[in-house]
TrEMBL record:
It is a multi-pass membrane protein. Pfam families: TauE. Belongs to the 4-toluene sulfonate uptake permease (TSUP) (TC 2.A.102) family. Keywords: Cell membrane, Membrane, Transmembrane, Transmembrane helix, Transport. GO terms for cellular component: plasma membrane. The keyword Transport applies. It comes from Planotetraspora silvatica. The chain crosses the membrane at residues 6-37, 44-62, 74-92, 99-117, 137-159, 191-214. This is Probable membrane transporter protein. Signal peptide: none annotated. It comes from the Bacteria. PANTHER family: MEMBRANE TRANSPORTER PROTEIN YDHB-RELATED (PTHR30269:SF23), TRANSMEMBRANE PROTEIN YFCA (PTHR30269). Its main location: membrane. It is found in: Cell membrane.
Length: 244
């Protein structure tokens, strides 16, 4: 591994930690970095382990802020989405997977720009069961193939008018649960290797440093700035992956 590659992995790990405790969309930039530096299928397993480190930190710090009623609406549709994503991973090659990841993120970026331009009233259409089922399916599928469901959750929670700490707490528990569920799927596809696990262990301390920085930022940022930041970060992440 060259110094430049090591630095990129390190920055990606810092961004994962920061995203988990502050600005969620930034984690997708890390997904793009990993996909650029590794074979696409292996990168999904490597970044999954790194994300789980950040998930544990976020769940601990936001353990009192989760909106369980929102999660109960989303969870039933997530598992079918994970299954569809696992089936898709089993049949596609790396080149097609990269293109699909890029297209999905561009679509989500466009939706987020639309949401930023025409923000709905709190709740709105996103309060219905259909929206919850759609968000759950999309989050399960996208997170299985690209570890990039942060954009889906950002769309859903911002459209619901969720307050900053409730946003972070709900997202923390959602992604921890989803990522734990993804481990056996990834393992069954043979995506975990000694090198992948070693890389995640080496990067874990940097995830914690990024998470610590994110906690300090989250305490100081206003609700309006928070919404702008999470939407903007998701758009940037989508463009980064497509342009790589």
């Amino acid at each position: 591994m060259t110094v430049a590659v090591a630095v990129l992995f390190g920055v990606a790990a810092l961004l994962v930690g920061f995203a988990k405790t502050a600005i969620g969309g930034l984690a997708t930039i890390s997904v793009a970095v990993f996909a650029s530096l590794m074979p696409a299928r292996e990168s999904t397993a490597a970044i999954l382990l790194v994300l789980l480190v950040g998930d544990v930190m976020a769940v601990w710090h936001y353990r009192h802020d989760c909106d369980w009623s929102l999660l109960r609406r989303l969870i039933p549709a997530v598992l079918p989405g994970l299954l569809l994503g696992a089936l898709f991973l089993a049949v596609v090659d790396d080149d097609l997977l990269r293109r699909v990841i890029g297209v999905l993120l561009v679509i989500m970026a466009a939706l987020q720009l639309l949401l930023r331009w025409r923000p709905p009233a709190a709740g709105g259409l996103a309060s219905g069961r259909t929206a919850a089922v759609g968000a759950g399916l999309a989050a399960g599928f996208v997170t299985m193939i690209a570890n990039a469901a942060g954009s889906v959750m950002t769309l859903y929670l911002i459209a619901r008018g969720v307050e900053k700490r409730r946003f972070l707490g709900t997202g923390a528990f959602f992604f921890f649960g989803v990522n734990v569920c993804k481990v056996p799927f990834s393992a069954s596809l043979g995506l975990f290797h000694t090198a992948t696990i070693t890389l995640a262990l080496v990067l874990a301390p940097l995830v914690l440093v990024g998470g610590w920085a994110g906690l300090h930022v989250a305490r100081r940022i206003s609700q309006a700035r928070f919404e702008q930041a999470v939407l903007g970060a998701s758009v940037l992440a989508a463009l980064a992956l497509v342009a790589r």
